[in-house]
From TrEMBL:
This is cyclic-guanylate-specific phosphodiesterase. SUPFAM superfamilies: EAL domain-like (SSF141868), Nucleotide cyclase (SSF55073). SMART domains: EAL, GGDEF. Residues 700-747, 778-810 are annotated as: Disordered. CDD domains: EAL, GGDEF. It comes from Xanthomonas oryzae pv. oryzae (strain KACC10331 / KXO85).
């Protein structure tokens, strides 16, 4: 008995098979990306959709086959065949959702899938229950071809699906996998159907009560087909939704990457920041523990960066930091990691073999940073202070290594900068002490532990006290008197310097009020301004309110600023100082010579005083060049109608030299140390009748006997010039002759040359103040030292004291200004 096929139904069966697999394929991707509970749901849904599709394809193919006898299908076997199809689909989906698909697993899955599909087919054929059973010709040939086709096709399809498990929306490969699987199943079905033989006179033996009508079977197939089409529509819609989702996910991924970069890297230099540095340190520690290695943490601080950043602006400072980071990256080792902690601090983590290796790398980095940088057509010079902490000798954790490297860096900075230093245990005590002071600062201000000490200032011409400089001290209950160098930098870092500055201003004005009540209304008190106070918009109101509260004249208050502070924001500084000057407050430029020394800008500042830094005063004892610098500064200040204050006067020679050079005011340990207010009054009163009275009398005598020359012909101050007659410069200075020596003519010296003293001629300097009781002449130099002494005195300066007993030597000095005078013998 021979059957026929309906070609349309055959094509429909192929379409159903491909459609079922194509619809179920995205479920693999969704199942892979879902959590465990949702993955099981996606697996069940996909297995049902794919299994019913395969089962529908089989029975559509059976409906396409026409026999000349009526046929029916057994209900139980038909349902069982559907369950087999669903289980087969579940097996395929489960295999392709695994993390890996090895060759043995692929082969086993393909074999099981082919056998189960073949089982489903023969169960469907058996559901016909033919009287005179169906035979196959040849049986083994048809069966082997069907199984081979199923196994090979299943393997190829499984592999493609596995490749698509994370991207079920690549439609070309998805369609290829669906076509391969569909053709495999349809091909196996129709191959077996062609091998089937129906004997003549065969009948369908399905009983009426268990028979599944063909109309029902067709309805089930049609419903299945409709469901698959609906699933396909949903899949297409989900594709568009997924595309939009993918775009959003890509944007989100990029945003997350940018946020991660921003959270873990410095936005300026693109170097790892502190957070990522700690991760790198943890990784290095774990690796060093496993491999028994060592590494070093080097903390690098840029010396002088703040001055450049304040002077040239933050924009150029940022570009300089980028160039510094590039240079450090170029000089670090291949396996080292560089990070920026913030501001002007960098950290390098590098593998080392021994401390000598670390020292060589540190020296190389210090030398590299000492090379000038060219930034925006500016040649900028920096130095660096570098601290080294080694693992595991110094610490075994990342935070401890950074702390110890910071302590070593601070030690290198205090030791002179432009160098490196290894960590030592003694350094931690200093660091802990600084942290403790920083923690105690706010409480100390609340408890009133700060006090003001006053260092007296004297008029250089007549020696009378003219006021003091207010200096803050911390009266710590346990540490005693803490100097300002120990807590002022901490106050600047913590932001408390503004509160401390306001407190100093009020206390100084309160003390001036008390002194005025005690009869010292002509005294002035100088107060140092911090950069934060100078930049504060409320500074003018604060000063005016404080002066009004204590009923003080504005001229009794002197506010001191440094050159660096004035250059930080030039326009704003000029505006603020102009307002203070209009109020009547005196302005002093402190530490002159140690900052920018910008003469053009200095000319614009509404200043009244210029303070020579103590470093130049201390160097006058041993350097003629520094004496020349001080002389030039004094001449410059007087030309600009500024009064000159010399601080740091510690020796009589320094005092005499500064007075002779024309300084207006003197301040230093020789004249008085900083002391509290009560001791200050007692000391100044005692000095009027004490040992200092001799010096005051000596100064007064020299002032009375001196012809107009030094102070009398000096330019007046700005306030004096406003009210006095125009000043005319003198062409020369006249140095007084010894009293009672009419035979000795007065010696005329050019205006600046008379200001150069001899550093080692202390007695000569004293003789310059008063000719009374001149000291004896120093002994002649020995032949061994004559040459060295002859080359030391500057031009036009006599190296011996001039006295009545040495008139011949004096004449000799005038004739030979470059040589040592002839011996008095």
């Amino acid at each position: 008995m021979v059957g026929t096929y309906n070609l349309g139904m055959v094509m429909l069966s192929l379409v159903v098979a491909v459609l079922a697999f194509y619809t179920a394929l995205p479920l693999v991707a969704w199942m892979t990306a879902s959590r465990v509970g949702f993955a099981a749901a996606w697996l069940s849904g996909g297995a049902i959709a794919m299994g019913i599709g395969i089962w529908s394809m089989h029975f559509i193919g059976m409906l396409a086959f026409r026999l000349p006898i009526p046929v029916g299908y057994d209900l139980a076997l038909t349902v069982y065949s559907m369950l087999v199809a669903i289980l087969t689909s579940a097996l395929a989906l489960w295999l392709t959702s695994r993390a890996d698909l090895s060759v043995p697993r692929l082969g086993l899955g393909a074999l099981l899938m082919g056998l189960v599909i073949a089982l489903m087919h023969y169960m469907g054929m058996g559901a016909l229950c033919m009287v005179k059973a169906i035979s196959y010709d040849p049986l083994l040939f048809g069966l082997s071809i069907a199984i081979a086709i199923a196994i090979v096709a299943s393997a190829a399809a499984l592999w493609i699906v596995f490749r698509l498990r994370h991207d079920g929306h690549r439609y070309s490969l998805r369609m290829i996998a669906a076509v391969i699987m569909g053709v495999a199943i349809v091909g196996m079905h129709y191959t077996d159907m062609a091998a089937a033989r129906f004997a003549p006179g065969s009948l369908c033996g399905v009983e009426a009560d268990t028979q599944l009508p063909l109309s029902w079977l067709a309805a089930v197939v049609l419903v299945t087909l409709a469901l698959l089409i609906l699933a396909l529509v949903i899949s297409v819609l989900s594709r568009r939704f997924q595309q939009r989702t993918d775009v959003l996910m890509q944007s989100l991924a990029k945003a997350n990457a940018d946020l991660t970069l921003a959270a873990l890297h410095d936005p300026l230099t693109r170097l790892p920041n502190r957070v990522l540095l700690h991760e790198h340190l943890l990784q290095n520690i774990e690796r060093a523990q496993r491999q028994g290695q060592r590494f070093a943490v080097m903390l690098i601080n840029l010396d002088g960066f703040k001055v450049i950043n304040d002077g040239y602006g933050h924009q150029l400072g940022d570009r300089l930091l980028v160039v510094v980071a590039e240079r450090l990256n170029a000089h670090r080792r291949a396996h080292g990691s560089l990070a920026r902690l913030g501001a002007d601090e960098f950290v390098l983590v590098a593998d080392i073999a021994d401390p000598g290796d670390a020292a060589a790398l540190a020296a190389h980095l210090v030398q590299a940073l000492a090379v000038p940088f060219m930034v925006s057509n500016h040649e900028l010079r920096l130095s660096s202070s570098l601290g080294i902490a080694q693992y595991p000798e110094d610490a075994t954790s990342g935070p401890q290594l950074l702390t110890h490297a910071d302590a070593a860096m601070n030690h290198a900075k205090h030791a002179g900068r432009n160098r490196y230093s290894f960590f030592e245990r003694s350094m931690t005590a200093t660091t802990r002490e600084r942290l403790q002071l920083l923690h105690e600062l706010p409480r100390a201000l609340e408890l009133g532990q700060f006090v003001l000490h006053y260092q007296p200032k004297y008029c250089a011409e007549d020696g009378r006290p003219i006021g003091a400089e207010a200096l803050i001290r911390w009266q710590h209950p346990e540490r005693g008197l803490v100097p300002p160098d120990s807590f002022i930098p901490l106050a600047e870092r913590s932001g408390m310097i503004g509160l401390l500055g306001s407190w100093v201003l009020r206390q100084a004005c309160r003390q001036m009020h008390d002194w005025r009540a005690a009869g010292h209304g002509d005294w002035r008190v100088a107060v140092n301004l911090s950069a934060i106070q100078l930049a504060s918009p409320s500074l003018l109101d604060e000063v005016a309110t404080t002066l009004s509260e204590f009923m003080l004249a504005p001229g009794q208050l002197t506010l001191e600023i440094t050159e660096t502070m004035a250059m930080r924001d030039a326009e704003a500084c000029l505006r603020t100082l102009g307002q203070l000057n209009a109020l009547g407050v005196r302005i002093a430029i402190d530490d002159f010579g140690t900052g920018y020394s910008n003469l053009l800008y200095l000319r614009k500042l509404p200043a009244h005083e210029l303070k020579i830094d103590r470093s130049f005063v201390q160097a006058m004892d041993s350097s003629a060049e520094d004496i020349a610098i001080v002389a030039a500064v004094v001449a410059l200040a007087h030309t600009m109608r500024l009064q000159v204050v010399a601080e740091g006067v510690e020796t009589i020679a320094q005092r005499n030299t500064l007075e002779r050079l024309g300084c207006d005011q003197l301040q230093g340990y020789l004249l008085g140390r900083p002391m509290d207010a009560e001791r200050f009054i007692a000391t100044v009163v005692a000095q009027r009748n004490g040992p200092r009275a001799a010096w005051l009398a000596e100064l007064q005598t020299a002032s009375n006997e001196r012809p107009p020359g030094l102070h009398a012909q000096r330019r007046p101050g700005r306030a004096e010039q406003r009210s006095g007659p125009p000043w005319k410069p003198a062409s020369s200075r006249v140095w007084p002759s010894p009293p009672g020596s009419p035979d000795t003519p007065q010696r005329h010296v050019p205006p600046l040359l008379f200001r150069f003293p001899i550093p080692d001629s202390t007695h000569w300097n004293a003789a310059c103040i008063s000719w009374a009781n001149p000291p004896p002449a120093p002994p002649c130099p020995s032949p061994k030292t004559a040459a060295s002494v002859q080359s030391f005195p500057p031009k036009n300066v006599c190296a011996r004291p001039v006295s009545r007993a040495t008139s011949r030597s004096r004449a000799s000095c005038r004739r030979r200004p470059y040589s040592v005078p002839a011996c008095s013998r």
